[in-house]
Every structure is written in structure tokens, then in C-alpha cells.
């Protein structure tokens, strides 16, 4: 057994345990922290597969950004106390069925799809500069869709702000 | 490089950083004392108290470790570890000489900033898991502050990357051969200053240490911690500060490049100077209010860094 295999199994175990902990934690903030941990472990997986850029962005955006936002939102709404969650696992059997069905679907597809197999068999050349390729296709070839998308996000932010402000005014008067 | 060699180098680097950080606390106390016309540590290791950091470390090691009974025990113990590990991880990507870096990838800057954004989660866990009102307020402040200051921090970090056309620290250093990025008219200085301010805010340093504010929050998120766990937070703060100083010296001050000779000595000198500058700021300014902090970020730093980044892009596209 070489180092890579050991790393794979250790990471897998950590990922499974932390993902289960996200669902079964009784405290909202604990779930958020375990989610952070599982996202971080996913980034380590990306590194072990040679996708360094994806791993960096995963840590920057998901573990650093989204989790901080989630934590922030938890604090701004409720669940700030040490109160324990109740009645969260009522639909456990159907949920388990649905998720395991989905899991086997994914496994079946990746196992049988010839496209995935050929991708897995090919080794990417180490000279390939991913960040350069990505930035060129984002900012040259697909610059218009990119800008339209950012405009859409800006509109969403402004819209959310307008909605939030109006609500507060009604509450005050 | 084999993996055994890599691990050995990592251990040596870790030991060196811990030793340096221990003595940085001594440096800070001496420096602060001189600024305030005092002598500072003197008796332990006469003269000039050079054994004081060792004595402090020993004291913290043998102190009683208290876990509050109503705290979230798992997260309470996780927080110090999280904070120290994430603040130390950044050093893996920072080049210490022109050629030596522990993990050599072409996305060093991206990785460094990604790791840097993880520290606040640890501070947050600490504040929440303590089950203490002051700690919780401090955690809230830390989260708000870091979410806000992440924006100008990354935007000002991007300016050197735009100048060098790369996220690789080695390329950034090479691009500064002859003209350091801080010497670029207007753009370089603005980017340097905004980065320094944002890094101070990100590292919870005075004048932005609102999550620690002794006078109102009795030290904030670490109020329930004692002994070695408290020392971990202290350690993480200094490690983070050291990493930020090192980053400034690499991104803006040319790193190992310098007159007469080039190499790791210049990195050390520049890092030390930036560190002393940060200490000078700390002992000269008062803490800002939370609304002033937010105003400075959203109304001044964020627009300024955006315009600055645009100017840097213009400069490169006109001259490149």
C-alpha cells in the first residue's frame, strides 16, 4: 500500500464521518463546523487528484466564504443559544432510501459510462496551465456571458437589499 | 524532492517559526516598552530579559487547564487547534529565499489567501463554544469584520499578481527585479497601504482588534481559555502577523531581492521591518469603533481597491 492509497482511505473515512456528523449534530453550529470540515476534506481530495486550482477555489469560496456566511446567518437569525435541535430526524427512513438510491445511481453511472472511463484512464499533462486556460476562456472567449452573469448577481443583491429594507419599514410604522 | 525530505523540511520550518514567534513576543514587549519610555522585561535572563519568552512558555504549559462546564466541550477544544493549524499552514506556500519554498505550486497566492480565510472560523468556534456572552459578542464581531475585510484584502493582493501576471510567488519576486511593486507610482503605494490595513483588520490587531477589546469585552473570544489553550490563540495571532509581514515583504518589497546581494537575509530584514511597523501602529493608535470600522471598509477601502485594481490592469495592458 503506498502513501496515496492510505491518504485516500483516511480522507474518505474523514469525509464520511464528518458528513454524517453534519446531519446528526443536535446543535446548528456544530453542523456548520462539520460542513466546513467536510468541504475542506473535499478540497484535499481535489489536491490528491491533481486539481490544485479547483482545490484552492474550493477552500477560498466554500470553506472560507460560504461557511462564514452560513455561520453569520445562523447568528443573525436564531439558534445562537446552546439550544438543542428537536424533531429533525422524523423522515429518516425515506431520506435514507432516497439518498442511497441516488448514491447507487451515481456509482452505476460512473462504473458503466465509457466517457468517464476514458477520462479516468487519461493522464493530464503536467505542463498544462489551468489558471491561464481558465482565465483566457472566461475573459476572452466567454466574456459576454460572464459579464451578463455578474450583472444578474448584482441585480439579485440590489433586489435583496430593497426587499429587506421595505420589510423593516413596514415593521416600524 | 522525496516525501521524507519534504516532511523533514516541514518539521524544521515549523520549529523555526515557533522559535521565531516566541522571540517576537519578547521583541514586541521590548519595543512597546521603549516607545513608552520603559525598560520592559529585564530580570529573567539579565540583561534585557532574553529568557523571558521561555519562562512565559513554561508558565503557560504548567497552568491549570479549565473547560467551562456549560461549554460545548468538543468545539471548545477544537478551536485552539484549528486556529494554530490554519495560521501555520500559510507558511507552506511562502517562499523564504529566491528558490526555497516548502510546497512549490504555481498558485501560491491563491492558496495563501484561501488558508488565511479559514482562521476566523476557529475564532468563531471559540467564541461560541465558550457559552459566554462576551465571547459570543466577540465572535459576532470577528465574523462581521472578517467577512467585510476579506474583500479589500483580496482586491489589494491581486494588484501584485496583475503586475506579475501570475499567482506564483516565484514569478512575483522575479517580476520585481529592478523595481519593487511598492515603487509603482500611486497604484503600488495604495495597494500596499490598503493591504496593510486589511491585514491588520483580518489579524485582529489594534486599531482593529474589536473582537478582543479588553476594555469592553474582557478579551473577547478567548476569555474562557486558560493555560496552553490560551497560549495557542496567542501563538496563532503572532504566527498570522508574521505571515502577513512576510507576505508584504514578498509581494511589495521585492522579497529576496535587494542591493549588494540577494537572498533570504533580505527577506528576514524586510519582514522584521514590516513587523516593527505593525507594532509601531499598535502602540500608537487607539481602537476604532465598530461603525467606524465598517465605514472604513465599505465606503473607503473597497471602492479604493477596486479602482486601484482597475488602474493596475490598465497599466499592464498599456505597457505590456
Could you give a short description of this structure?
The complex is a heterodimer of chains A (173) and B (320). Chain A has 173 residues and is mainly alpha-helical.
Task: Explain the overall architecture.
- The complex is a heterodimer of chains A (173) and B (320).
- With 173 residues, chain A is an all-alpha fold.
- Chain A has three domains: 83 residues, NADH-ubiquinone/plastoquinone oxidoreductase chain 6, subunit NuoJ (Four Helix Bundle (Hemerythrin (Met), subunit A), Up-down Bundle), CATH 1.20.120; 30 residues; 49 residues.
- Chain A is built from seven helices and no strands.
- The longest helix of chain A has 30 residues.
- Chain B is mainly alpha-helical and 320 residues long.
- Chain B has two domains: 62 residues; 252 residues, no CATH class.
- Chain B contains twelve helices and no strands.
- Chain B is globular and about 60 Å long.
- The chains are: A mainly alpha (173), B mainly alpha (320).
- Chains A and B meet through helix 2 and helix 3 of A and helix 3, helix 4, helix 5 and helix 6 of B.
Amino acid at each position: 500500500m503506498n502513501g496515496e492509497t492510505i491518504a485516500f482511505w483516511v480522507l474518505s473515512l474523514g469525509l464520511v464521518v464528518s458528513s454524517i456528523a453534519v446531519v446528526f449534530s443536535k446543535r446548528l453550529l456544530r453542523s456548520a463546523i462539520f460542513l466546513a470540515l467536510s468541504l475542506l476534506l473535499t478540497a484535499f481530495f481535489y489536491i490528491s487528484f491533481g486539481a490544485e486550482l479547483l482545490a484552492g477555489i474550493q477552500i477560498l469560496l466554500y470553506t472560507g466564504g460560504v461557511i462564514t456566511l452560513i455561520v453569520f446567518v445562523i447568528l443573525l437569525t436564531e439558534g445562537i443559544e446552546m439550544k438543542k435541535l428537536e424533531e429533525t430526524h422524523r423522515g429518516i427512513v425515506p431520506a435514507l432510501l432516497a439518498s442511497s438510491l441516488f448514491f447507487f445511481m451515481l456509482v452505476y453511472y460512473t462504473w458503466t459510462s465509457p466517457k468517464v472511463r476514458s477520462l479516468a484512464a487519461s493522464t493530464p499533462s503536467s505542463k498544462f496551465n489551468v489558471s491561464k486556460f481558465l482565465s483566457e476562456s472566461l475573459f476572452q472567449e466567454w466574456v459576454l456571458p460572464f459579464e451578463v452573469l455578474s450583472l444578474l448577481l448584482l441585480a439579485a443583491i440590489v433586489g435583496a437589499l430593497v426587499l429587506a429594507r421595505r420589510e423593516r419599514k413596514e415593521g416600524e410604522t | 524532492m522525496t516525501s521524507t525530505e519534504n516532511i523533514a523540511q516541514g518539521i524544521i520550518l515549523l520549529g523555526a517559526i515557533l522559535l521565531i514567534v516566541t522571540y517576537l513576543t519578547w521583541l514586541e514587549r521590548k519595543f512597546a516598552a521603549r516607545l513608552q519610555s520603559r525598560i520592559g522585561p529585564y530580570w529573567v535572563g539579565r540583561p534585557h530579559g532574553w529568557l523571558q519568552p521561555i519562562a512565559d512558555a513554561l508558565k503557560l504549559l504548567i497552568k491549570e487547564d479549565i473547560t467551562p462546564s456549560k461549554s460545548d466541550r468538543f468545539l471548545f477544544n477544537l478551536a485552539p487547534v484549528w486556529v494554530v493549524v490554519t495560521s501555520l499552514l500559510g507558511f507552506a506556500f511562502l517562499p523564504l529565499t529566491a528558490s526555497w519554498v516548502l510546497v512549490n505550486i504555481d498558485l501560491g497566492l491563491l492558496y495563501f489567501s484561501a488558508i488565511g480565510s479559514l482562521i476566523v472560523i476557529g475564532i468563531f468556534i471559540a467564541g461560541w463554544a465558550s457559552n459566554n456572552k462576551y465571547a459570543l459578542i466577540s465572535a459576532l464581531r470577528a465574523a462581521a469584520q472578517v467577512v467585510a475585510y476579506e474583500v479589500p484584502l483580496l482586491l489589494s493582493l491581486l494588484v501584485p499578481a496583475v503586475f506579475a501576471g501570475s499567482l506564483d510567488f516565484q514569478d512575483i519576486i522575479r517580476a520585481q527585479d529592478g523595481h519593487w511593486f511598492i515603487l509603482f507610482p500611486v497604484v503600488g503605494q495604495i495597494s500596499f497601504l490598503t493591504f496593510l490595513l486589511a491585514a491588520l483588520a483580518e489579524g485582529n490587531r489594534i486599531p482593529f482588534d474589536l473582537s478582543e477589546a479588553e476594555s469592553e469585552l474582557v478579551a473577547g473570544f478567548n476569555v474562557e481559555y486558560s493555560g496552553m489553550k490560551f497560549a495557542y490563540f496567542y501563538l496563532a495571532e503572532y504566527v498570522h502577523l508574521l505571515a502577513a509581514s512576510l507576505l508584504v515583504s514578498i509581494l511589495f518589497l521585492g522579497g529576496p531581492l535587494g542591493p549588494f546581494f540577494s537572498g533570504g537575509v533580505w527577506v528576514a530584514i524586510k519582514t522584521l521591518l514590516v513587523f516593527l511597523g505593525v507594532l509601531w501602529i499598535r502602540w500608537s493608535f487607539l481602537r476604532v469603533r465598530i461603525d467606524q470600522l465598517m465605514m472604513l471598509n465599505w465606503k473607503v477601502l473597497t471602492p479604493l481597491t477596486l479602482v486601484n485594481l482597475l488602474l493596475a490592469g490598465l497599466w499592464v495592458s498599456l505597457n505590456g
